[in-house]
C-alpha cells in the first residue's frame, strides 16, 4: 500500500489565487493504479484566520499553522503584498512554523514569490532557488545569500523546492509527482489537468526584454523556416543568412527573443517533433529519428534519455492508447 502524502498549503494575506489552487488541483489529481489519491491537500493560515486573495475573495481555512507540524510537504504560494515582499521579512509565527516543519523533515516548496517567505525564514541561505523573473532584483537585494537562478522554471534542492511565476507552479507540482511516483502517474495527472507533462526551457524565454528597433529584422520568420526543415536542419550560418544578419548578430538576437541559443532551441524543436511523431504516428523509431533530424535511432534514444529519462519505445507506450 502506497502511503498518502499529506500536503499543507500555507496562505497569507494577498495570496496569489492561482498559486493557492494549484497544489490541490495538480497534486490532488494524482492517483495510483487503483484510483486511490496519492496526496491529500489542505489549506492553513496563521491562526486559522481568513486571508485576502489577489482575486477579490477571502480564503476561509479549516486549519491553523499547526497543520505544518504534521504535513509531509508544505507549499507556500506566491503573494503580491506584505512584509516578505516589501521588506524581506516574515512574521515570527510563520517563520517559526516553517522552520519547525523543515527541521522535522518536511519538504518545503514555494510557488512564485512564495520564495520570499522561505528566504525570510532562513530556509534558502546558501541554497539554489528561483522566483518570478520580475522580482529577481528585489529578491537579490533582500536575500544576497541565496543562489538565485531566475532563468529556470523550478529548482529541486531535495528538501527545499521553488518555482518561478504562476504557471511554473504547475510544472513543479508535476515534477514532485514524477519524483515521488514516476512518469506514468505524473503524465496521467497532467492529462487530467489538460497541461503538458513538462515544458522545455526556462523562464528566460518569458522575460520581458525590449528588443532593439528593426521592425521585421527579428528571428521569428527564420524560426518558422527552420521548423519546416527539421529533417535536415540548417547550419548556424544558413540561419543567419536567412535572417539577413551576421552570425554574431543573429545569435544575440535569437537569444534575446527565445532565451536560448540557436543550437539549444533547434535541439528542443527536434526533440519535440520526435515526441509528437512517437505520440501520433506508427512510424518506426528509425523513421522518427530521420524525420526529426537526428539521423539515427541511437542519436534519438540518447537525446530522449538525456532530456526525459526514457527510451522512444517507452515514451510511445506511455502516450499511445490513452482515452481522450
Would you identify the regions where 5 or more consecutive residues have pLDDT less than 50?
208-216
Strand order of the largest sheet: 2-1-5-6-10-9
Q: Supply the number of helical segments.
A: 14
- Give helix and strand order, one letter per element, not per position: EHEEEEHHEHEHEEEHHHHHHHHH
Helical fraction equals: 40-55%
Shape: globular
Q: What is the structural class?
A: alpha/beta
Tell me the Rg in angstroms: 22 Å
Strand content: 5-15%
Oligomeric assembly: single chain
Please outline the major beta sheet. Answer: 6 strands, mixed
* Head-to-tail CA distance between termini: 29 Å
Description:
The chain is an alpha/beta fold and 324 residues long. Helix content is 43%, strand content 11%. It contains 14 helices and ten strands. It has a six-stranded mixed β-sheet, with helices on both faces. A two-stranded antiparallel ribbon has the order 3-4. α12 (285-291) crosses α13 (297-308). The protein starts with a strand and ends in a 5-residue tail after the last helix.
Amino acid at each position: 500500500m502506497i502511503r498518502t502524502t499529506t500536503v499543507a498549503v500555507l496562505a497569507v494575506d494577498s495570496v496569489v489565487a492561482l498559486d493557492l489552487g494549484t497544489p490541490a488541483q495538480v497534486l490532488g489529481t494524482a492517483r495510483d493504479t487503483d484510483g486511490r489519491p496519492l496526496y491529500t491537500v489542505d489549506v492553513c493560515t496563521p491562526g486559522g484566520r481568513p486571508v485576502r486573495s489577489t482575486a477579490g475573495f477571502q480564503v476561509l481555512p479549516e486549519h491553523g499553522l499547526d497543520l505544518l507540524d504534521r504535513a509531509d510537504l508544505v507549499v507556500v504560494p506566491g503573494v503580491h503584498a506584505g512584509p516578505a515582499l516589501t521588506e524581506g521579512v516574515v512574521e515570527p509565527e510563520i517563520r517559526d512554523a516553517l522552520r519547525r516543519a523543515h527541521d522535522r523533515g518536511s519538504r518545503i516548496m514555494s510557488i512564485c514569490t512564495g520564495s520570499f517567505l522561505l528566504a525570510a525564514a532562513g530556509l534558502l541561505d546558501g541554497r539554489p532557488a528561483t522566483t518570478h523573473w520580475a522580482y529577481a532584483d528585489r529578491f537579490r537585494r533582500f536575500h544576497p545569500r541565496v543562489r538565485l537562478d531566475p532563468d529556470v522554471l523550478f529548482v529541486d534542492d531535495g528538501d527545499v523546492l521553488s518555482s518561478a511565476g504562476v504557471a511554473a507552479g504547475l510544472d513543479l507540482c508535476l515534477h514532485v509527482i514524477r519524483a515521488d511516483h514516476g512518469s506514468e502517474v505524473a503524465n496521467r495527472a497532467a492529462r487530467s489537468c489538460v497541461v503538458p507533462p513538462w515544458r522545455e526551457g526556462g523562464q528566460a524565454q518569458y522575460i520581458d526584454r525590449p528588443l532593439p528597433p528593426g521592425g521585421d529584422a527579428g528571428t521569428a520568420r527564420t524560426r518558422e523556416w527552420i521548423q519546416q526543415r527539421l529533417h535536415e536542419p540548417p547550419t548556424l550560418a544558413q540561419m543567419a543568412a536567412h535572417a539577413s544578419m551576421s552570425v554574431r548578430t543573429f545569435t544575440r538576437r535569437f537569444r534575446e527573443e527565445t532565451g536560448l541559443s540557436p543550437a539549444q532551441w533547434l535541439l528542443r524543436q527536434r526533440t519535440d517533433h520526435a515526441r509528437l511523431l512517437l505520440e501520433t504516428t506508427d512510424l518506426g523509431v528509425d523513421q522518427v529519428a530521420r524525420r526529426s533530424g537526428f539521423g539515427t535511432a541511437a542519436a534519438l534514444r540518447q537525446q530522449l534519455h538525456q532530456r526525459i529519462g526514457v527510451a522512444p519505445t517507452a515514451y510511445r507506450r506511455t502516450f499511445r492508447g490513452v482515452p481522450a
